[in-house]
Amino acid sequence: MIAPRSSSNPPFAAPRFLPALTGAALCLALLGGLQALRAETPQEACAAAEPASIQVTVERVRSSKGLITAVLYGDNPETFLKSGARLDRIRVEARAGETVLCLQAPSAGRYTVALYHDENGNKKFDQDFLGIPTEGYGFSNNPGFRFGKPEQEETLFTIDGAPVDLRISVLYLQGKNNARDDRS
Hints:
8 strands, 3 helices
């Protein structure tokens, strides 16, 4: 026969560390939620930013796969598109059609924004064995297709103490160049 349980011995006694563990999990969830919120609404973060903020609307994004990586360069021709010469960089989740992001310039001046659609999410601008980009890319002022990089002067824009809005169209040299959502 089974003896009845006494009221002093509950069927499940919660370990003493459970409230602390639950609190830590809640904090991590909130931090993750705040980070996700920032990634989903970069234009709001840009609107409240410093006068040298640059809101970039990336147009003609063909899918929601991967990331959009945008890099800010100064007007020095010797550092144009050079590794390690960036002034700011941001990576946001790609959104088919348009993706909005925000960069921060150090002060008023002339700058270039270069970006690419990192569809495979490897955080690299992929090219084939001939050096032809396999991922979409774009520059401030939309200089269009060239064999090789554009001239820096074609991509420069000015910040004069007020926030700047840029629209950059992504150019895809390989695959379909459409703006539909491929979230399957």
